[in-house]
Specification:
This protein is α/β, with parallel strands linked by helices. It is built from eight helices and eight strands, in the order E-H-E-H-E-H-E-H-E-E-H-E-H-E-H-H. 32% of the residues lie in helices and 18% in strands. The radius of gyration is 16 Å and the shape is globular. The protein binds D-xylitol-5-phosphate and zinc ion. The site of D-xylitol-5-phosphate has 21 residues, from strand 2, strand 8 and helix 7. It catalyses: D-ribulose 5-phosphate = D-xylulose 5-phosphate.
């Protein structure tokens, strides 16, 4: 196993100083910046919109990995693309036309991703494997940081890895929710390439970020 890509979720950052927080996790070794967008409808929580992504863009050159937990997603894709998203990940349940949504994302010059909730069948992503660059496996029910990892996702990661290998395409498997240095090795062994972590990166405050990211990378 090689060292995983680490995508800290800024949901756990200090929202009163987000720009500074993004610079800190960049300096601490983050590979991506994970941005959780919630609408209080698709998930029971509200967070941020494209204006915040745009405001954060000058603070780092690292890719913005934007996770849209919103329905519908289509009306906001152009705004997030223009704000500086590098990956835009949508849930299949967010609209009736996943294929069209992914096409819209690609047309805007952004890498499309599909997020799979804990109970979403893997078959939901199978017909669009040719169109995407990332699959986000949710290892908690989306909406909040700080929840416990659901180990039942591990065999699903293994199956996804096989599906991707059979396709012969380069698609990142990223795992999101309850990731810690204790469970990271099992997630990577199952076939993940990238780990999202909120609590496990931001705990202990700014002086701990580099150590926290290194602890996750060491699991590879
Ligand atoms: C959950 C979000 C996750 C979450 C991760 O809806 O998609 O990105 O913030 O936070 P932790 O690492 O605390 O589970
Ligand atoms: Zn997320």
């Amino acid at each position: 196993m090689s060292a995983p890509l680490i995508s800290p979720s800024i949901l756990s950052a200090d929202f009163a100083q987000l720009g500074e927080e993004v610079r800190r996790i960049d300096a601490a070794g983050a590979d991506f910046i994970h941005v959780d967008v919630m609408d209080g409808h698709f998930v029971p929580n509200l967070t941020i919109g494209p204006g915040v992504v745009k405001a954060l863009r000058p603070h780092t050159k690292k890719p913005f990995d934007v996770h849209l937990m919103i329905a519908p997603a289509d009306p906001y894709i152009a705004a997030f693309a223009e704000a500086g998203a590098d990956y835009l990940t949508v849930h299949p349940e967010a609209g009736p036309h996943l294929h069209r949504t992914l096409q819209m994302i690609r047309d805007k010059g952004v890498k499309p991703g599909v997020a799979l909730n804990p109970a979403t069948p893997l078959e939901a992503v199978e017909p669009v494997l040719d169109m995407i660059d990332l699959i986000l496996v949710m290892s908690v029910n989306p909406g909040f940081g700080g929840q416990a990892f659901l180990p039942v996702q591990l065999p699903r990661i293994e199956r996804l890895r096989q599906m991707i290998a059979a396709k012969g395409r380069d698609i990142l498997i990223e795992v999101d929710g309850g990731v810690t240095p204790d469970n990271a090795a099992s997630i990577l062994k199952a076939g993940a390439d990238a780990l999202v972590a909120g609590t496990a990166v931001f705990r202990g405050g700014p002086d701990a970020y580099a150590e926290n990211i290194a602890a996750l990378k060491a699991a590879g």
